[in-house]
Amino acid sequence: MNVPEGRYYRVVQDRPSTVQCGLCPHRCVLKQGTFGLCKVRQGFEGALALPFYGSISSISIDPIEKKPLYHFRPGSSIFSVGFVGCNLHCPFCQNWEISQKTDITFRSISPAELIKLAAESGTDAVAFTYSEPLVHIEYLLEALGEAKKRGLATVLVSNGCINEEPAKDVLSLTDAANIDLKSFRSDTYRNQLGGDLAAVCRFLELAREMNVHLEVTTLVVTGLNDSLAEAEGIVEFLSGLSPEIPWHLSAYHPAYRWHEGSTKPELLFQIKNLVRGRLSYVYLGNIWGETNQTLCSHCGKSLVERSGYHIETPGLELNEETKAYFCSHCGKPAPIYY
After folding, report:
1. Residues 8-21: what's their mean pLDDT?
2. What's the CA dihedral at 141, 142, 144, 147 to 10 degrees?
3. How far apart (Å, rounded) are the C-alpha atoms in residues 72 and 213?
4. How do 9-11 and 213-220 pair as beta strands?
5. Of the candidates 156, 222, 224, 237, the residue with the CA atom closest to the CA atom of residue 193
6. List of residues 6+ apart from 320 with CB closer than 8 A
7. Is 55-288 a domain of CATH 3.40.50.300?
8. What is the pLDDT of residue 1?
């Protein structure tokens, strides 16, 4: 095999030229030369091949708030990396050109070379984002390990739809994550998105158990997941994990194959009111003019103020020795992490 071999697969009994991928709930059965639903993992000579290993579609330096992460190093920049392919096929995908296609221009970069670029960028952190990084988990594990050696913070932006063993492997090397919880209906995940709600929920549980800083995003899509009843289900689940998990409610705009009207801002405000008292931090995204403050849970004064990607931290202080944030008004610990 002239390309790297994947992990998380088994040879199908009595069919030595056929393998079954074990990365995600699809558990694709791959014959010689065929690809999984992710479009990047391939059966080859009785093994799982990675022909798109190191295929980087995007590199950019972004505000960390763009991930979005609001409670992790606010106001900083992060070296951001995208791949190709995805194990979901969301009809409203905002990045479908790289998630649903592989016949695009990309660069081939080794994990060590990539992390060298990240270290030289001056950002002190690297994010795997844009398309679905988990379908490239072998590359991801190497790159995350290299980042740890260089003292870079590691961030994962993902759909979280993988099985438990690989989830634990990748989360063990991850400092912060923003995970999409796209719906709270199993049939929506199965029939519309091509995913598995239970696997995503388990990923979120594992992130909390393994002390990864976790934030969650839900894109509220007209005609798909825009009911108050569904929002109630998400609130109950997240508050059961921890009421301190920041929840990003994002407005949808027509994209790819979904052409319903844009999310009405009033709906997001309704959902935010529904949350009151059960989740401590709810932020609205993709709404023109919306500002998102983070308030001190002790004294109620402003820690972080956001207007788009313009960030001010009037009440936030960082102890450089301990790398702990605290409120400059009352001196109590702040719900922000380094």
Report:
1. 94
2. 170
3. 8
4. unpaired
5. 224
6. none
7. no
8. 64
